[in-house]
Amino acid sequence: MEVGRLGDYSRRFFLRGTTAASLLSATSCRKIQNLLGLKEEHGLCLPPPNEEIDLISHAISRLSFGPTPSDYHHVKKLGVTHREAVNAYIEEQLNPQGIDDHHAQRAMRRFESLHAPLGEMYEYKEKHLLEQLTSATLMGAVQSKRQLYELMVHFWSDHFNIDVSKKDCKWLKAADDREVIRKHTFGNFLDLVSASALSPAMLWYLDGRQNRKRQPADYPNENYARELLELHTLGLNGGYTQKDVMEVARCLSGWTVRSKKRFFKGRVEFDPASHDDGAKVVLGHQISAGGGQKDLKDVLKILCEHPSTAQHLAEKLCVRFIADQPSAQSIKDVAETFLATSGDFTKVLRRVFSTEEFLTGPRGGKLKKPFELIVSSLRATRAEISSTANLIDYLVSLGHAPFQYPSPDGYPDVGAPWVGGLFWRWHFAIGLARNQIHPKIRIREAKLFQEAGGIAGFSAVLFGRKPTQEELMSFHRSGEPLAMAIASPAFQWR
Amino acid sequence: MIREATGIVSSEGGGAKTLVVIFLRGGADGLTMVPPIGDRDYYAARPTLAVKEPDILALGDTHYGLHPSMVGMQRLFHEGDLSIYPAVGSDDQTRSHFYAQDLMEHGGSEAGGWLGRFMRFREGESPGALSAIALGKVMPEVLRGAPAAAVIDSINRFSLSQRGESTSKIETELAELYGRDRTLMGEVAKDTLQAIKRIQELSKNDNQPNHGAQYGADSFSQSLRQTAQLIRAQVGLEAVSLDLNGWDSHFAQDTLITPLMVRLSEGLSNFRRDLGHLMEKVTVVVMTEFGRRVAENSSFGTDHGRGGVMFALSEGGGGRVIGDRPELESGILVGPGDVPVQMDYRAALKPILSHHGAGESFAKIFPSWSLKHSSQES
Question: Is residue A76 within 8 Å of A65, Cβ to Cβ?
Fold first, then answer.
């Protein structure tokens, strides 16, 4: 292929339709890049070559916030067969520390206040920490190579949802993100639940700090205990009773957070005088009297080892990674691994990705939530971002701003509630393609098209498969193929 | 799941009921807007600020009236459209604007706003992109948490492009590609494109208000005008939040709030006239974070208090005073001398939200309050 023809490339490509797409191989792409003297700063661009979403594209779209132009090539070269390559990719993503991510980590360290000690967080203005945390979350999702890790951070942030608009959570959520969610993302479930139970933000959000029994007549505050059972562990139909809720609340009574008016503000403490120290029975297990603060450890262990917890978490993970309505078999398989490994999340996730349904089931059937749509657009276009304010505005308009879900169950992970936001999805696509979102957010359309081989190659990057003839014609007729491809139905799914 | 779902979005957006929430920020003085008639203690506590008895606009045979600047609202009351709640408030004890506004907008110590939760949990079809809007510059707390909400200065911002350039070719192709989509997404796309077209026509045409309504040029009146335009355009608008600021009248109260009362009264009156029969699907709620101290202070103003007023405007749903405000004898006043809260604002909102389709979800809209009050209800 000659350089002189490159200007015509996309039009020619379009005219020749789908047959032309087969010309696009790694070799031709590399040739184009070498001829143009393009630096391989991002790795080689290889658009997915098949008419259907293949296993590699499927794995990338499910284990990440969406492909960059070089991801397909990156994964493909990890193995001889697609299956081998995908297995190697899964292992790579399950071991985030092994991934060189200095570029993104440096970008995320810019948000200095997020690294402040707990007590100092109260010194920031209320909105500052939320802005910083949202920006860091967004930038991590866009730039980090540890994509599965970031995706799971997102998953846990919903599972252990904390809305920052509730009282002191506006200061304390940043510490929760750091010390609870990010610290235990790929760890053990019991450790994660234990950290969350004693997270100052969670103690504020679900009123655990007010759960005390000082006199015989005091009733414990059940709010956290109920959500712990219903949302965090066993699940709504997990087989617990109202009596269990009250018993769990009794076990957890006495834990509180030092107020912001005192020294060591935000510190979590156990007050024996506010703890109900009598004997308890939780889900048939005896907890003897006089346990004091050890009750918390005992009760969380009972909850985390309960088979309903394995079932509940398995179902949520299958909904996240496989389908809005995953098969009972997949859930059963994952739940078994959860039980067998006592909730070791590296192993549990590995099991999700080895289910028959993940590997051979339907592809491209999960609607992107707004955050995913925005992040996947920024990743695919290699947007240069030095301001996130307008991106956050879009997330607010689309009803999906991180850490702002108004009830404890977290943002829904299925498609139906999200389908109403098409207006803002299109608005964003057009703004991004026209470089009009913000002066500090830039994409380079010409370069993207050169690398990928015109709009046909680039939309293959977006969709994980070659575009159809109808799609290509529509992109061209619109006069703004890039905007149209990002706004198109195919890119709304993953 | 999406792929099987049907009929979640109405094809025309015409069936939607619209709830407009106007927040009077700063703590509006209920005793000036809705003065008592024949209450000697009122005149004793307010030697300079009390509305003189002959000036009070009567509200039928009730023992309440309206400030003389609120002629429009008096007419709305007599026409049976305006309800007046004379002593509404929250459980706020701090008398702090920010705390009290948050409390009233969140619906208690919940996170997120009650209007946002209403949009997320109310029964019926999923909200669309144009279902919930705030006219202003920032997302108000009351709407936070809605599944999709837009903050706009002006309805002209409802264009797919940032700077108002044409997107008609893209719209044509969106119709083409999404038209092939047989899932719910295809339906939503069709509705959304229609809504965009209707709004484009709105901003293109001169679009004078109907029935001789003449809105003021201030931003509050213009926001009401645009709300009426959106309702007429049938874009599926269900929740609107707008603010009328500046009620914090510690000093020279009369000169400060009289223009605001005119604005509110004229604004509502024009809005009602403009909408005509379309008003049958619309409710306007006017609320404020708290009322003000009964006794005036030494600088012809009033300080932060407790019970304040609320108004609701809906076709044929008014013409009455709901709840009661006791005579202002000192024995009944609370704290440093404030009107007691006789009706919780959530109790006032409950029937309105039910009318707008809250259905069984009321407990999710006001969770902690509903829990506390479920035992008192039948």
Answer: no
Measure the CA dihedral A188/A190/A191/A195, to 10°: 140
Average pLDDT across chain B, whole number: 87
Average pLDDT over residues A453-477: 97
**DSSP 8-state secondary structure symbol assigned to residue A96:** G
Q: How many CB atoms lie within 10 A of CB B279?
A: 22
Residue type for A356, please?
Answer: E
Out of A324, A478, A492, closest to residue B169 by CB: A478
What is the percent of chain B where pLDDT is above 90? 58
Residues of B in contact with A406 (CB under 8 A): 110-113, 116-117, 120, 144-145
Q: Give yes or no for residue A366 having a pLDDT over 90.
A: yes
Å between B16 CA and nearest CA of chain A: 15
Best of A407, A463, A475 to substitute, by most chain B Cβ atoms within 10 angstroms, is A407
The amino acid present at B370, given as its one-letter code, is S
Q: What is the pLDDT of residue B12?
A: 43
At A24, the pLDDT band (50, 70, 90 cuts) reads very low
State whether B112 and A165 contact (CB < 8 Å).
Answer: yes
Whether the pLDDT of residue A199 is over 50: the answer is yes
Q: Does domain B18-157+214-376 have CATH number 2.40.50?
A: no
- Residues from chain B contacting residue A324 (CB–CB below 8 Å): 1-2
Pairwise CB contact (< 8 Å): B111 & A163: yes
Contact B227, B135 (CB under 8 A): yes
Measured between its terminal Cα atoms, the distance across chain B in Å is 37
A164–chain B nearest CA distance, Å? 7
Strand pairing report for B343-344 and B239-245 = unpaired
Q: How far is A32 from chain B (nearest CA, A)?
A: 30
Nearest to A406 among B111, B130, B172 (CB): B111
User: Are residues B111 and A164, on separate chains, in Cβ contact within 8 Å?
Assistant: yes
The whole-angstrom distance between B126's CA and the closest CA on chain A is: 7
Domain spans of chain A, in order of start: 3-54+365-492, 109-140+148-305, 307-360
**How does pLDDT run across B103-131, given as a tens digit for each residue?**
899 888 777 789 999 998 888 877 776 78
Residue of A nearest to B147 (CA): A399
Query: What pLDDT, in 10s, does the model give residues B283-330?
Result: 999 999 999 999 999 889 999 999 999 999 999 999 999 999 988 887
Torsion of Cα atoms, A269 then A273 then A275 then A277, to 10°: 130
Instruction: List C-alpha distances in Å: A478 to A114, A445, A493, B166, B167.
Output: 43, 16, 21, 12, 9
- Is A426 in Cβ contact with B174 (below 8 Å)? yes
Distance between CA atoms of B211 and B196, rounded to whole angstroms?
25
What whole-number percentage of chain A has pLDDT above 90?
Answer: 77
